[in-house]
Amino acid sequence: MTLEELEKGKAESLAEIAAAADAAAVERLRVKYVGRNGSIPALIKGMKDVPKEERPAFGKAVQAWRAEVEAALAAKVAAPAAGGSSATLDPTLPGRWFEPGAEHPLSRVIAETARIFGHLGFTVADGPDIETRFNNFTALNTPPHHPSQDRRDTFWLETPEFEGGEGTPEDLLLRTQTSPVQIRTMLQNKPPVRVICPGRTYRRDTTDATHSANFHQIEGLYVDSKPVSLADLKSVLAYFAREMMGDSVTVRFRPHFFPFTEPSVEVDFSCHVCKGKGCAVCKQSGWIEVAGAGMVDPRVFRFVGWNPDEVSGYAFGFGVERIAMIKYGIPDIRWLYENDVRFLEQIA
Ligand code: DAH
To answer: Are residues 123 and 69 in the same domain?
Structure first.
């Protein structure tokens, strides 16, 4: 195309835009001239075939064309009356609505937990979703015949012939808890350790309002060569509860059993929804179970090569969904996975 032809093309395009009768026509012309496959971008792409000496002048003319077309299109959209047509813009059409994004409630609970425990000197540790039998069970003092190792409870990656047998420590599974990160942390560090470990966990559970086969936990581990007591655990969890839920929350421990802690407790928060009076969320009890915890069992220390006469510590494991559900008053766990924007907006 010569410069002359180019000027003629420009005049034609501007005339067409001026004559466009409605918004659809303006849009068609935008696509025709400056859209991705429009004629002006095509000219720019073809610049390499223009003789070298003519290229600067030609380039300048194409850019000027593009600028004028864009200005003409913009003017047409902004002031339809100036173009002689009131049909270009329909003022009764609803506007376009852009909502700012928001953090998912589960991510918020995890971030908030990391912040709170960060004040107490805990750092965040990480571990993989695919674990070994050793890290997920054996080193956590959970024997092969324990029901949690059954293939009806645990997603084994290669189902080994362990029914009746014991399997091997290297057998792979989708971790059923974040507790294996305790083992990884102790194998890689020396006391003292203070970590929390948020992450995904997997169990063969049928999904309903309070269960999911894939959920999240936040593990905590504190081990020191100075004596650590159950009272330390309780005060730390009480501090966490107040920071997370507000001053009105109280914490109670109930005796329980976990293979990897002795003594073991289950941890309840007073119900955030009814403030402990009793409601549907807490099944009228005034309390909601949020974690398992206890003093690290001496056998666990031996599995990672630490001397239980020289170290002591506590561990805990929170359900992230549980905390999100009571903090934000969410009655159904499935809402946390559906990513319905109306739900997420409400929480934000
Ligand atoms: N891993 C346990 C579960 O998934 C929760 C738990 C209990 C974690 C006691 C701990 C603990 O660290 O000390 O049910």
So the answer is: no
